[in-house]
Specification:
single chain; 480 residues; alpha/beta; 10-stranded mixed β-sheet; 6-stranded mixed β-sheet; 21 strands; globular
């Protein structure tokens, strides 16, 4: 906190401008508060033009693009690091006197209650559903982090009664390892799957960064993690927080947490203590009578058990935060999802189209296949991130038909599909020809879902660009 009390006198180097998120927000924040800011990125000015144009009106920002210079790190009072930059072996960061990130700066300046979400898949859906619920209940609240909104864009608006929801990647958490002010009041860890192994090498190293989310939590805080799997059990055993579990089926009677019953309704079981004639929640105490609350109904707009689990977990956060229990189900049943994550965006001639472009690991594409009552038409494939495509190949027969986008990951997938005699169309280098070939094969009642199960970089700028292009091409081809 004290480090940033006199921002006007700081010389700040922002390492990694990018096209959205923390770099742009950090440069804007420090420049607005009078610091002398150097923005440096290995990408050139042409590539970064959209971000540069948003900052060029600041006379106290200088740009060093297409390269990094050692002196910009040696002379800076503080370096704001992009989470995608490794510290280990980085010759520039080794020269920095003080290293922060946009998240750590936010934590040093804000006293807002913190709700943190991490995991392999479902982070954005869960965080967005929590934020949706808080807003619906009238809380002044904010959403940021890995969801591409830096908390520095709203830090000055936060107070002690304005809950902040942060979606945090493993990289962002790694940068918070030594930050004592990172202490979530409530944290959610979505299911852990193989991801980013090209960066980490092993699952143990990957999960080690995920564990940072509860490093500073105490019994007065609440951690929500999965039940009945290896990683959830480890989190529950290690964390000092009060533990709530979640599962797609009823939990054992003595376990607090969220679950679904056979009729498709979602519940959360928490302990209550009595105060006079009324029941008063003590979610961190874990004492008193276990109380079961219906938080999601079978009429929820979200389809697929994994997506519904995210919404139910979000509803559990609302209950723990103190939202009126009898109104949560009504609010959360109306939550319709978010862009690029099983986003239903168009229907034409009885054919429904879903954009799940944020599906960047094979298991996420498998989850998309299992989200529908009837086999969907699946579009998948893309760039390899040192992942195992066998789960997708083993479940590909669940698709009504399979269309492949080209890429290094697709090359691996094709070999696995051929070994199993599973037919496919493609691979394609874009959506135009793919949709042209697909259209005559579609029938009324079909669900078409883009769920790549792979990264996007060989054909698209990122997964959001991939999803947006898909939506644009679908609307152009399937709208009269």
């Amino acid at each position: 906190m004290q480090f940033f009390e006199n921002i006007r006198n700081l010389h700040v180097t922002v390492m990694g401008l990018g096209l959205n998120g923390g770099g742009l927000a950090s440069a804007d924040f420090f420049a607005r508060h009078g610091a002398q800011v150097t923005v440096t990125d290995l990408k050139n000015a042409e590539t970064l033009a959209p971000s540069v144009n948003k900052l060029k009106h600041f006379p106290n920002i200088r740009f060093v693009l297409g390269e990094h210079r050692i002196e910009d790190f040696k002379t800076a009072d503080v370096v704001i690091k992009n989470p995608g930059v490794k510290r280990e072996g980085n010759i520039y960061l080794e020269e920095a006197k003080h290293i922060e990130t946009d998240i750590s700066v936010f934590l040093s300046l804000s006293k807002a209650p913190l709700i943190a979400v991490t995991g392999s898949k479902g982070k954005s859906s869960t965080a967005s559903a929590i934020y949706y619920g808080l807003q619906a209940f009238g809380y002044t609240s904010f959403l940021g982090g890995n969801i591409t909104v830096s908390p520095l864009t709203f830090v000055e608006k936060t107070e002690r009664d304005t809950p902040v929801v942060l979606e945090l990647s493993s990289w962002q958490l790694a940068d918070l390892k030594s930050v004592k002010s990172f202490k979530p009041d409530i944290a959610v860890i979505t299911p852990i799957m193989e991801d980013h192994l090209n960066w980490y090498g092993t699952m143990e190293k990957y999960v080690s960064d995920k564990k940072i989310i509860y490093k500073n939590m105490s019994e007065q805080d609440s951690l929500i993690c999965s039940y009945g799997d290896k990683w959830g059990d480890i989190f529950a055993q290690e964390s000092g927080a009060h533990i709530y579990r979640y599962d797609a089926v009823p939990l054992p009677d003595n376990i607090e947490g969220a679950f679904f019953t056979a009729d498709g309704n979602g519940y959360c079981r928490i302990a209550l203590e009595k105060s006079g004639n009324s029941a008063v929640k003590r979610p961190a105490a874990g004492k008193g009578t276990l109380h079961q609350i219906k938080l999601l109904s079978h009429k929820s707009r979200i389809s697929g058990i994994k997506l519904r689990q995210n919404v139910l977990n979000a509803a559990s956060v609302l209950a723990l935060y103190g939202a009126p229990e009898d109104k949560i189900a009504g609010i959360m049943d109306d939550f319709g999802g978010i862009a690029h994550r099983m986003e239903f965006f168009h229907e034409a001639e009885g054919i429904r189209f879903y954009n799940d472009s944020a599906s960047t690991v094979p298991e996420a594409a498998v989850a998309a296949l299992e989200a529908f009552s009837e086999p969907p038409v699946l579009i998948c494939g893309g760039t390899n991130k040192n992942l195992n495509f066998t789960p997708l190949a083993e479940n590909a027969s669940k698709a009504k038909s399979l269309y492949l986008l080209g890429g290094s990951g697709t090359d691996i997938l094709i070999k696995l599909l051929k070994a199993r005699n599973i037919p496919y169309y493609g691979p394609y280098v874009g959506f135009n020809t793919l949709l042209q070939d697909m259209k005559p094969n579609l029938e009324k009642g079909d669900a078409v879902v883009l769920s790549p199960g792979a990264a996007s970089f060989e054909l698209f700028t990122n997964e959001f660009d991939r999803g947006n292009q898909f939506k644009e091409r679908v609307l152009a081809r399937f709208t009269k």
